[in-house]
């Protein structure tokens, strides 16, 4: 686990493990009445977060819990950010936990019990960017089974080789590799590959859709 005092300051983009009273991205979304933000503002937030992730990647560090609540605005009215809460973080060659990430931002490899690395933070980034655009989580599963169902609704069923090697596959798939059917509290059943990412985001900006898609690969 990382030392709580660990702190990097590249190009005025800061992150550390200290809790700050500054506004976080979730609170910003809430203050905006969950209506989402312009792509120009999202792009500035994205650039700042990517700078953080690039430095983490260079140091072989996985944050393991990237989400809007853990991204603070450095100053009100500024797009400079501070990434906080390294309580679950680890080095990629020295993993501490097998079950990490908050549910809405949890990657398929973590859900399925597969080996994971720094790309899981990019997955979380893609989910954050989508939420900044729409105002709501991209994959709002009520529980873990529906979480994977939400992901498969947009991205389709994972390849057989991944399912077969997943240590937690029986929770989500039957013996034939078919996703277990689940109905949520609103009576909704999610069908794999039934909508595109563009439809889920209600966005036609190809550059933005392509970037989020790459985050979720």
TrEMBL record:
Gene3D superfamilies, alphabetized: Transferase(Phosphotransferase) domain 1
Please give the PROSITE patterns that the UniProt record associates with this protein: PROTEIN_KINASE_DOM (PS50011), PROTEIN_KINASE_ST (PS00108)
Q: Which species is the source of this protein? A: Culex pipiens pipiens
Per the record's keyword annotation, is tRNA-binding included, yes or no?
A: no
**What family is this protein classified in?**
Belongs to the protein kinase superfamily. CMGC Ser/Thr protein kinase family. MNB/DYRK subfamily.
Lineage per the UniProt record: Eukaryota, Metazoa, Ecdysozoa, Arthropoda, Hexapoda
**Molecular function via GO:** ATP binding; protein serine/threonine kinase activity
For this protein, the record's InterPro entries field holds:
Kinase-like_dom_sf, Prot_kinase_dom, Ser/Thr_kinase_AS, Ser_Thr_dual-spec_kinase
Q: Which Pfam families match?
A: Pkinase (PF00069)
User: What's this protein's name?
Assistant: Protein kinase domain-containing protein
């Amino acid at each position: 686990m990382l030392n709580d005092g660990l702190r990097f300051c590249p190009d005025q983009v800061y992150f550390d493990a200290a809790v700050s009273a500054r506004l976080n991205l979730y609170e910003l979304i809430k203050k905006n009445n969950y209506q989402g933000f312009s792509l120009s503002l999202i792009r500035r937030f994205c650039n700042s977060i990517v700078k953080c992730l690039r430095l983490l990647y260079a140091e072989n560090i996985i944050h393991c819990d990237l989400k809007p609540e853990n991204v603070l605005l450095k100053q009100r009215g500024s797009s400079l950010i501070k990434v906080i809460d390294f309580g679950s973080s680890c080095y990629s060659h020295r993993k501490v936990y097998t079950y990490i990430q908050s549910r809405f931002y949890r990657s398929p490899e973590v859900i399925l019990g597969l080996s994971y690395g720094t790309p899981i933070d990019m997955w979380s980034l893609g989910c954050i960017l989508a939420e900044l655009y729409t105002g709501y989580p991209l994959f709002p599963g009520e529980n873990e089974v529906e979480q994977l169902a939400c992901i498969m609704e947009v991205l389709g069923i994972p390849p057989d080789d991944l399912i077969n090697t997943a240590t937690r596959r029986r929770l989500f798939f039957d013996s034939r590799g078919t996703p277990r059917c689940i109905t949520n509290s609103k009576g909704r059943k999610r069908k794999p590959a039934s909508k595109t990412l563009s439809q889920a985001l209600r966005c036609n900006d190809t550059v933005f859709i392509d970037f989020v898609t790459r985050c979720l690969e």
